[in-house]
Amino acid sequence: MRALVVCLVTAGIAGCSGGKSDKEQQKPAAAPARSVNINIATATTGGAYYPIGNAIAQLWNDKLPGVKASAQATNGTPHNIQLLARKDAEVAIAQTGIVYQAVNGADAYKDQGKQTHFKGMTQLYPNVVHWVVRKESRVQGLSDLKGKKFVPGPQNSATELNSREMLAILGLDYRARDDLKADYMDYNQAVEQLKNKHAEAVMLAGGVPTAAVLDVMTSGEGRLLSLPDAYVQQLTAKYPWYSSFTIPANSYKGQDRDVKTVAVT
């Protein structure tokens, strides 16, 4: 399943090599390979990208001579694409849907045009959408959020763009028409808003489990929304980078049944 794309600006990592043949070992020693610094752009610390980026950096540091890799917390995919363009990052974790828009100059990138400064490197995992509402909320579906206060993610992040797309299917727009009141925050701030009853819902995208979702569900203050099959069909028909996904029962504390949602694929 195609889910996330690690994008690479440079063609390779200088100074890294495999084992040498006997013939090669007889040659005069070459000059020491120069070290290569690799900045891995991730997302906010409450999601999955940041710890994954740190794990990749640690692996490269341990296994690739001359490589000095580190992970950077960012606002997510759109920010990462900007960092790649400015050469402030060499590698980035990114949602496939946003990457598709960027390389085709579509939707969020219509005004900017095609982004050709990066290429796909590998896939990682399904980026699962978690819509979490307050435990006592009467909200049973996304359409019930009309007029409510919610956190769609950090402004202009991939998560926030996902929120726009998913609500647009229901004719809801929190940017042009104020159908909902949006507070733009990172994952950790979002769950605090929910736990403190300052928001009706939050949208969090990541693996299963996602740290921020674990936090709010363990606190007993959150409830995961299931998405109707008909809605999922509409969404995936319009935006083919989404696919149906089921969060198995007991993935989070208090979640005693399967939750139907989508993943960015």
Structure description:
This protein is an alpha/beta fold and 265 residues long. It has two domains: 98 residues, 3-Layer(aba) Sandwich (D-Maltodextrin-Binding Protein, domain 2); 138 residues, D-Maltodextrin-Binding Protein, domain 2, CATH 3.40.190.10. Helices cover 29% and strands 23% of the residues. It is built from eight helices and twelve strands. Strands 6, 7, 8, 9, 10, 11 and 12 form a seven-stranded mixed β-sheet that branches. Strand 7, helix 5 and strand 8 form a beta-alpha-beta unit. 41% of the residues are buried.
Intertermini distance: 7 Å
**Second-tier CATH architecture of the largest domain:** 3-Layer(aba) Sandwich
> How would you name the CATH homologous superfamily of the largest domain?
Periplasmic binding protein-like II
Gross morphology is globular
Averaged pLDDT: 88
- What is the number of beta strands? 12
Keywords:
265 residues; alpha/beta; D-Maltodextrin-Binding Protein, domain 2; 2 domains; seven-stranded mixed sheet; five-stranded mixed sheet; 12 strands
Question: Could you give a quick summary of the protein structure above?
Answer:
The protein has 8 helices and 12 strands. With about 260 residues, the chain is an alpha/beta fold.
How is the topology of this model organized?
Layout (H helix, E strand, L loop, with lengths): L3 E5 L13 H5 L9 E6 L7 H15 L3 E6 L4 H9 L5 E5 H9 L14 E5 L3 E8 L14 E3 L6 H11 L12 E2 L4 H9 L5 E6 L4 H8 L3 E3 L4 H10 L3 E6 L11 E6 L1
Helix pairs in contact: 6-7
